[in-house]
Amino acid sequence: MKPKSTKNVLKWLIGPAVVMIAGIMGAGSTVSLLSSGCYFKYTLLWAVLLSLPAIIVAQDTASRIGTASNLGMMRLIDRETFKGLKWIIIIPVLFTAMSANMGQLGAMAAALTNFINLAAGKTLISSSPSTITNILLFLPLIALVILVNATGGYKRIEKLLFYLLFVVLFSFLIVAVQAFFHADEILLMLKGLNPKLPPDVVGTSAEGKEVVRSSLVFASAIIGGGVASTAILSYPYFTREGGFDRSNIKAAFKKHLVTYGLLFGIYSLVLLVAGGFALNGQPGYVGFQGAQEMGIALQGILGPLGTVFFSLGLFICGFNTLTVVSLLCSYFILDALGKEWRFTKENKLFLVPFLTFIIVPALISSFWHYPNMLKVVIAMLINTIITPLTLILLIYLANKKSLMKEFRASFARNMFLVYTMGLAFFTIFIAVKGLWAQLSKIFY
Fold first, then answer.
1. Which pLDDT tens digit goes with each residue over 213-222?
2. What are the chain's domains?
3. Measuring CA to CA, which residue among 253, 222, 217 is closest to residue 58?
4. Residue 193: how many CB atoms within 10 A of its CB?
5. pTM, to two decimals
6. b/e per residue 92-101 (b: at least 16 CB within 10 A)
7. Quick check: helix, strand or coil at residue 153?
8. Smallest Cα–Cα separation from 223: which of 443, 9, 79, 429?
9. In Å, how far are 109, 152, 177, 317, 337 from 311, measured between CA atoms?
């Protein structure tokens, strides 16, 4: 009976929420959480807990809107607001997605580089590879992504991402679990639940330049990671693909509560603890930047096995988010154009935008000569523009009686949405504050 029970639990967990978590917890979020632990130990654990209610309520509200209306989000925006608003939203989102997928492919290439260098026993590929090397790395990556994703439809992707998510969790848990065998580490984790910003840390990069790590910036990155506009707008498509309808809207909230609260919470905590235990305090740790440097550092700390699990986790994170971002871009474009947007074997049109958002970022990344940090800055700038509008739209639609009827947002839900809006504006303020500083460092 026990294996059957476990199987039923796993089957219950598989669904749109797991697809969304796989998308949110991409290479960027993974490195961000690992970096938070690396630079500040466990002192930002409270930021993970602070973000969970916002993520759960925002995503569930988006799901309710899509399910209650029985329309795609772009067509719904067109009908319930004014003509043209959907394009004001879509165009910045597509630029963000292109930049994000460049970052995911870069992280996958960095993980692949770690494997190659580890297997060779020396540095065959540097952290700044040539254009030809980039092309040779990206070609098998895009072939793998297309081969796995483009032939099975949404349901196959849903199951695949669910199991890959657990592989990633296990990969980083191998690194993090050692912290729980030390009483002093556990005590530091408990102290990290106190919502208090630690002092900024100063160090030296691998190039010998002074670097300052701001605790406020990393706290805002953790808090705002799950309330991105792309995640909110795309979730209704995933729930519709997953078979949700008006009859199970209330049951869906319980599933979102468990899946996001449990999986997303544990996942985020494990990543931060892994960075705090394995990387914090190592020689030059403040200067660590990027997946390859962290992978090398883990090899020195935990041996080859540490690098293997770290690189495997990072590779799958990149793969998952690349897949999800390509999915949501396809939904947005096809729905806005009034075409069939569901991802099925029969809908060949779906493959056009889906493959575009895999192949084009790979081509751009191959010839990318600016620092990878610029990709992050571009995505941050565009998200800064679009996120407030998305949340205002979410609150407006959730409270429209003619649309939502008996599922119109309650007072408690509205309070959580206002709380989410507050967190979003906080992260936007930090993003704008740090934007010009980042750009000046890149182009200095």
1. 888 878 877 8
2. 2-443 (1.20.1740.10)
3. 253
4. 13
5. 0.80
6. bbbbbbbbbb
7. coil
8. 429
9. 10, 27, 17, 10, 39
